[in-house]
Amino acid sequence: MKIDNFPKEIQTFLIPQPQGDLFYQCLGCSATYPIKELLYVCPKCGQVLLIHNRNFDELKKIPGKTWQQIFDYRRMLNIPALKGIYRYHEFIGPNIPLNSIVYLGEGHTPIVEANRQLQAKAGAKFYYKNDGQNPSASFKDRGMASALSYIKYLIDTRLASNIIAICASTGDTSASAALYASYLTPDIKSAVLLPYKKVTPQQLSQPLGSGAKVFEIPGVFDDCMKIVEKLSEEYPVALLNSKNAWRILGQESYSYEVAQDFEYEMHDKVIIVPIGNAGNISAVMSGFLKFYEAGIIDTLPKIIGVQSEHADPVFRYYLEPDVDKRVFKPVTVKPSVAQAAMIGNPVSMPRVIAIANRYNEMSGRKNVFFIQVTEQSIMDWSLDANRNGHIACTQGGESLAGLVQAVEQGIITDQDIAIVDATAHAIKFSGFQDQYFQKTIDKDYEIKPNQSLINMPSLVMPENREKIPAQGKPLSDDDFKIFADDISRKIATELNLVKNS
Questions:
Q1: Residue 162: which domain range?
Q2: How far apart are the first and last CA of the chain?
Q3: pLDDT for the residue numbered 399
Q4: Using an 8 Å Cβ cutoff, are 180 and 102 in contact?
Q5: Distances (CA, A) of 463 to 147, 487, 492
Q6: 448 located within any domain
Q7: What per-residue confidence (pLDDT) applies to 4?
Q8: Are residues 366 and 413 in the same domain?
Q9: 44 part of a folded domain
Q10: Average pLDDT value for residue range 181-189
Q11: Residue 353 and residue 328 in one domain
Q12: How do beta strands 213-217 and 188-195 pair?
């Protein structure tokens, strides 16, 4: 749709111009730094950073209802830079011109209401937000579109060149980083570090297919992350993990999309997300806070972060009710089918603490909750979800298991509507489904396959096994008729079909 077809009072807002005064701020010592260089931690104290806009109050001068109209009308534009997460340009990267924005089809993933059977079984009305329908099949593309758009902006303005982008990953980050970096080749080259034998074959194939240099390292994700941090401290590389504050900005788009898709009515909504490196839950809270402060929404929804008992440092931190007595302690992770969340020392933990405190304060009540679930429930609920029309990864199963726990604990009531996050596409973790069905899943996962959820193929063979079709060896018409009659009869018997009269 063309600009001239929109109401005149909205036309001037639809194509955003570079604006804002963005800066890094340390969560430890509060030091601030300009954004014209790649920073990941505070040079003074080593703490993680957040990006703020000194001119954010200017956005508040536009009424919330007008912002709603701006975003709703932008939805109809055919400008690639505004089709993805930068529909919310002023709230994500207001300094980045449209011609520097990288758009590969990320964002605006579908929100699908669960069918009545699954809602009844879970005990709540809920929707899945299928972030596995992003380009690299995971939510990581939101943050990567932001981080790579910023790097492209630095390249376009000659503030950087010949960049080596690097990340540690449990699988999804590497796939996303490699994909977006490959789009900007030859200006950017990518390298990823993966924990050896801790990434699914599907996830490993993605960065290899995108041309990244892939290094497999003994240990777990936390070990890879330490090496990547050392590389970023000692060499001129661009770190693309969620330690990169630009990643957090991009992932805030999840909140903006949820708000828009529910007509900005958040009073009865609950957002349920799995916690891995803690960047996503930080971004989700931050996004809703920005929309709330700008008057775009008038209520902050409940936020529920979910962790497996095999990787639960955030949950453990919040077990202590006394804020002054809380001490964060990393944990040694055990194997989890929710591999993307199998992180024992999340780098964004300081962000979670700071933003959750502010979120509860702005809500006027406790509005951020943390829940622990078993590996058994993660696997069973992910299978249940997919048996009812979804494409939920094991992290999506973790979120759904968290919803069920939240209902049992009274955090979610029958007045609430939950939005459950499936961070990746189910096909990335199909290996766990295969192991579950074949009853070969390793005992360290502490999962016992439920026979009612197991589904295996049935081989149907004819009585005459000498005359069966094969590639390059078709049967004669008469022989195929005998074959088809035999096979059809056996399938009909298995399905309890009755012949047409």
A1: 139-250
A2: 55
A3: 98
A4: yes
A5: 61, 9, 16
A6: yes
A7: 87
A8: yes
A9: no
A10: 94
A11: yes
A12: parallel
Look up residue 226 and give its two tokens: 């330490």
- Say whether both 373 and 424 belong to one domain: yes
- Model confidence, pTM: 0.94
Show the tokens assigned to 202.
Answer: 């599907």
Nearest residue to 487 (alpha-carbon basis) of 421, 479, 189: 479
Mean pLDDT of 49-53: 96
- Report residue 467 as tokens: 């005359």
Instruction: Find the CATH number of the domain harbouring 119.
Output: 3.40.50.1100
Last residue of a domain, one of 250, 275, 292: 250
Note whether 263 and 346 are same-domain residues: yes
Neighbours of 318 (CB within 10 A): 18
Long-range contact set of residues 378-383: C-beta below 8 Å, sequence gap at least 24 = 378/308, 378/336, 378/337, 378/338, 379/337, 379/432, 379/436, 379/441, 379/445, 379/447, 380/450, 380/453, 381/122, 382/337, 382/426, 382/429, 383/433, 383/436, 383/453
Q: Which of 48, 52, 31, 32 is closest to 40 using CA atoms?
A: 48
Q: Tell me: the pLDDT tens digits for 103-120?
A: 999 999 999 999 999 999
Residues 148 and 297 in one domain: no
- What are 451's two structure tokens? 């026979």
Would you state the structure tokens that stand for residue 320, as one six-digit string? Answer: 């202590």
**Confidence band for 206, pLDDT divided at 50, 70 and 90:** very high
217 and 256, same domain (yes or no): no
Domain boundary among 219, 250, 281: 250
Tally of structural domains, the chain? 3
Rounded to a whole number of angstroms, the CA Rg of the chain reads 25
pLDDT band per the 50, 70, 90 thresholds, residue 181: very high
Distance CA 31, CA 33 (A): 7
At 92, the amino acid letter reads I
3-class DSSP assignment, residue 18: coil
* 485, two tokens: 């009659």
Same domain, 167 and 301: no
Q: What is the pLDDT of residues 256-314, one digit of tens each?
A: 999 999 999 999 999 999 999 899 999 999 999 999 999 999 999 999 999 999 999 99
